[in-house]
C-alpha cells in the first residue's frame, strides 16, 4: 500500500526504526548465544577439511582452476600494488635525490679545487683528479654512514 501523506510516512519510518532496533538486538543475542557451539563445530571440522583437501588434490582441482583462469589475473593486483608503491617511493625520494646530488657536487668541487685544472686527453693530472674526486665522495659517504645521516 503506497504512503500518501506525511503522517503515514512518519509512522512507517518510526515502525521501521523500532523493528530494525529489535532485530539488531535479536541478531546480537543469536551471535552471542552460539559462540561456544561455533567454536566446537569449527574445532571438530578439521578432519572434514583435510578430506576436502585430499579430494581436491586427487581431482587436480587446483591445476584445473589455474588453467581456467586468465593469465591477467596473476599479474593485475601485483602490478597495481607495485606501480602504486613505485609512484609513492619515487615521489618521496625526489627531494632526497636532489639533496644528495647537490651535496655530491659540492664535495666534488671542494676535492677538485686543490688538484688543479683538467689536462689534455691522456694527461696524468686527469687521473689524479678522478681519484681525488672518488676518494672525497667515498669519505663523505662513510662520514654520513658513521654519523647516521
- State the assembly state of the protein chains: single chain
Distance between the termini: 74 Å
Using only CA atoms, what is the Rg?
A: 36 Å
Helix content: over 70%
Number of helices: 6
Q: What's the mean pLDDT score? A: 84
- The total beta strand count reads 0
Task: Give the overall shape.
Answer: elongated
Features:
about 0% strand, about 150 residues, elongated, mainly alpha
Topology readout:
Blueprint: H1 6-33, H2 35-44, H3 46-58, H4 61-68, H5 76-113, H6 124-146
Helix pairs in contact: 5-6
Question: How is this structure best described in words?
Answer:
With 149 residues, the chain is mostly helical. The chain has a domain at 77-149. It has helices at 6-33, 35-44, 46-58, 61-68, 76-113, 124-146. The longest helix is centred in the middle third of the chain and has 38 residues, at 76-113. The mean pLDDT is 84.
Amino acid at each position: 500500500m503506497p504512503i500518501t501523506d506525511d503522517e503515514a510516512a512518519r509512522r512507517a519510518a518510526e515502525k521501521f526504526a523500532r523493528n530494525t532496533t529489535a532485530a539488531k538486538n535479536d541478531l546480537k543475542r543469536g551471535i552471542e548465544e552460539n559462540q561456544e557451539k561455533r567454536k566446537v563445530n569449527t574445532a571438530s571440522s578439521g578432519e572434514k577439511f583435510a578430506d576436502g583437501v585430499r579430494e581436491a588434490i586427487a581431482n587436480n582441482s587446483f591445476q584445473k582452476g589455474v588453467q581456467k583462469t586468465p593469465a591477467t589475473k596473476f599479474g593485475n593486483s601485483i602490478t597495481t600494488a607495485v606501480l602504486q608503491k613505485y609512484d609513492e617511493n619515487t615521489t618521496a625520494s625526489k627531494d632526497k635525490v636532489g639533496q644528495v646530488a647537490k651535496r655530491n657536487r659540492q664535495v666534488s668541487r671542494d676535492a677538485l679545487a686543490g688538484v688543479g685544472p683538467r689536462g689534455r686527453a691522456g694527461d696524468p693530472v686527469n687521473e689524479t683528479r678522478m681519484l681525488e674526486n672518488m676518494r672525497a665522495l667515498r669519505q663523505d659517504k662513510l662520514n654520513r654512514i658513521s654519523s647516521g645521516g
